[in-house]
Amino acid sequence: MKDKSFAENNNTSEFKRTRVVVGLDIGTTKIACFVGRKNDHDKIEIIAMGKAESLGVMRGVVSNIERTIQSISNAVQATQEGVEGDLKIKNVHVGIAGQHIKSKQHRGIYTRRTANGEISQQDIDAFVDDMYKLVMNPGEAIISVIPQEYIVDGEPEIKDPIGMAGVRLEANFHIICGQVTNVQNITRCVERSGLNVKDIILEPIASAQSVLSEEEKEAGVVLVDIGGGTTDVAIFHDGLIRHTAVIPFGGKIITQDIKEGCRIMERQAEMLKVKFGSALASESNENEVVCIPGLRGRDPKEITLRNLASIVQARMEEIIELVNLEIKNSGYEKKLIGGIVVTGGGSQLKHLTQLIEYLTGLDARIGYPTEHLANTNDIESLASPMYSTGIGLVLKGFESMEELKPWEQEETISATDHQSHAKKVEEANEKIRVHSDGKKRGDFFERILNPIKNFFDDSQD
Length: 461
Hints:
With 461 residues, the chain is of the alpha+beta class. A hairpin with a 2-residue loop joins strand 5 and strand 6.
């Protein structure tokens, strides 16, 4: 599937050397690819998107390499056809989820080498890099390290210590880890599709970037992203992420429940859920009936909307109870003024927010991913909650780009400029890799794979 309308109003050849970001959402039911750029007003807009059915992913984990590669290629090809000009999709920001994902809080300590001078970005980078060296369980690797509050020479609750004087740095870190093999499988699929993995981002963090406001993050809010195979949870307070979790149930299991409860085909169950599904049986009329064609030679089935809603409500109650358990485990149960924001494809069920409010006692709303995008003619086409993760990956990519120095930022350029620009790109990449202490800085995958390599090397000695 492709949608060229996103690029029709943008002559890409006029935007040579324009920086663009590509987000690749590898989900259980679909794989979606989004290309975003900043317009003349410094607002982010989506210039192309495409999606394809996901055939090799189960609950956020790759279960069939070849099928996943084919699905990724189909989605990227559909997106590439929607991009005008010479821009070619190459570097992608990939989302990761799955029940293997875990999160933990950790207090770290870092002592600067000298008491003179200000705390610099290099000090913070070195501090964060130290956290990637933490010893994990066998087979696990750290995916992301997110700093929270800092403590500088005993002074607590400092959000940004850069520019301050101090020797001893302490910080609370939110550390996200997962199974090395699952990360490698996703990486392998993307790279065998002819793409480079620029970064791997936890999907609930990406979704939060697209649907939450800064005021909600400050007040305290729970993001619930109901995908096809998993339900992702992210809790924010005081503008910082405090808790993340992945629940191994999503919209696909509701479809399975309808299939088994009504004794119909899976595609029929999915159509019933999308068109008539409701999370509250009490809001459905007993007298309303849907007729489902039977198999060859068999009579059609009649299903009341009340019975359909009862099946959906039972499973949604289970998912919401698990979300409520994560809220309690986080310790922020009574600090969530912003309530719950639910997004993802599964959030499109009718009366879902009413059920959430009833079971949790918190206010709830549906989160749409267009809140932080430029207002273009095609904005309504992107306003579905199912696109929250993909658009969030684009937004996170631009956020990461802004954190880099000017000489570190990569540019997506037209084919005519490629040869003359190749040397500059190589030099820029070298600057990214070199720390102030002269050591080369490992990229994302080196941080993951080096501890595993060292573990096996030590065991052989």
